Amino acid sequence: MKTEVAIIGAGPAGSAAAIALSKKGISNVLIDKRRKIGIPVQCAEFVPLNINSYVDLNAVPSLISQEIGFMDVDAGKVIRRVDGKGYILNRDIFDSELASVAVGKGSRLLSGARAYKINPVKNSVEILNVEEKIPDEIYYDYLIIAAGPKPYLDIPQNKTFIYAAQVKTELLKALDSVICYFRAYIPYGYGWLFPKGRLANVGIGIEKSGSYNGGFSLSGSLSRFIEELRAGGLIGTKIIEKTSGLVPVSGLNEITAGNIALCGDSAGLTHPITGAGILSAVISGELAGDYAAESVKKSKNLLSEYKEEIESIFKKPFLTALKKRAELYPKMLDDAGIAENISRLWPSFDEYYKVKS
Ligand SMILES: Cc1cc2nc3c(=O)[nH]c(=O)nc-3n(C[C@H](O)[C@H](O)[C@H](O)COP(=O)(O)OP(=O)(O)OC[C@H]3O[C@@H](n4cnc5c(N)ncnc54)[C@H](O)[C@@H]3O)c2cc1C
Asked: What is the CA(77)–ligand 1 centre distance, in A?
């Protein structure tokens, strides 16, 4: 099969790229190993208000589970309320809706198709239909990798990860804020309670490797966190769903390699402290699609401009966050250290509230 642009991954980044390409009349194939786009959900589902500059959430009411007014940062004795307007998504619907919009505009979606080999010389990607095990090869002019956090393919990708585990449980008290918890037993990361109507996404993310984590395991710390929230009367005992996943926290990757552009988690575009990556996936996917489309139209590789634009948006805030991560987390391995350093680690993250220019 031949297409102008092949896209690996139909998460928010890949679908945003496909929409941008189809809007400009460029043929594109969106490849995803999942049979049903958006399922399973491996996410706490919070997006800042500014997502509306890219995806009009109000156009499809079922995309939003609930509105959020604030972010509460709970560091034990210190609790700070910062600006945190946004939404808790129904992430499964969000991802499948974006892919459907792309298809509606002309993208070809191959779901249940795993990309397992890129041939940069032939400009092709080999795929395998996950059910029938039928191989196929897609030839492209440009390739967009939007395959999430794991470095599946031979392209330099994420090096350091937060290991995240989450449960969906009953929320006993209505909340209009997302709460982030800093605890000594959640080293180099944090715990979260994000309300979803009468339910809540409750999870933790920790950096597992290295001696600094004091021997805390992901499952042990999650159980302890859940117990703390239960004891505080915030959540019930019923576990409705469990999920886990990786969050890259090593900062920006290479972004481009010849006629290949990376976006979303594949480009390392999750914030090194908050772990947020949905909005940056959409922003980078849309830009990757735009620049790949212009490259096809002008028969000239313009992906270096994509790289420049991504770096102009994300490089500075991500470098600041990486520096803070390296400097402050080692000082936050006990309660006193958390109380002393939290306001330097976690201010209000202005970059998420900027409006698209
Ligand atoms: C537990 C957890 C909670 C999180 N909570 C939040 C949150 O509240 N807010 C926030 O902003 N961010 C959150 N994140 C991060 C956020 O989920 C990601 O940043 C976001 O999903 C990135 O989008 P993406 O399109 O780059 O990648 P993904 O959403 O990971 O999509 C990648 C797609 O590529 C497909 N794929 C992968 N490999 C292949 C292959 N070889 N062949 C074919 N298809 C492939 C996958 O099936 C997937 O559909 C969280 C992450 C985790 C793990």
From this structure: 33
